[in-house]
Amino acid sequence: MATHTRDRRARVEEMRRAQAHAERRKTFGFIAVAVVVGLVLVAIPVAQVILKARNDPARKPLSAFGVAPAAAACSPVESPAVTAAGLHIGPGTNQPTKTRARYSTVPPTSGEHYNLTAALGRKFFAPNDGPKMEELVHNLEHGYTVLWYDDTVRGAQLETLRDLLARVTRDSPKFVVAPWDPSYGQFPARKHIGLATWGHKQLCGQLSGEVVGAFVKRFPPSQAPEPGGA
Question: Of 2, 49, 148, 174, which is the most exposed, with the fewest CB atoms less than 10 Å away?
Fold first, then answer.
């Protein structure tokens, strides 16, 4: 009878140990699953941040925008004589009825301009939504570089310009992209992009981020008459 009791107790103890072992395995399994799920939940947003950073145009090299300099068909940089620095026309000036300036170059690099600059805070202007030429020339006087594009630039090319704007303004905030108004003169044949800063200009057949970056670096805001202006 005593032996039977001991055997029964041994079997009960063995069953208890087996059940405890099974419970531990089950618990460890739940923990492992929770750890894996947690890692996945952390990895997904991290991967999204990394992917977003890689696709952020402001982080891309200038060579990622448009074509290489050799393929852009750019003219040499020109530096026309500066005229009418600080000379304002239009409402609020001593020439209130004169609302249109005449510029000797395409695009202009100096000359008469409005008392106001182009809309503050805006850096990209879509076709048929550009500011007045006389406003942008005032921007030039404040040290801005303006990139003008003609009506052949559209669709994906416009998106590339918008992305390039994000990249350039990371290093130089005084940069504006605007449509060219042909009533102020036609771009030369096979030229569709015009770069200008106060006293300097360059025209290209195609957009090249490297050309734009080099132009902006060569002519920083400090070379303009009023670089402290907004």
Answer: 2
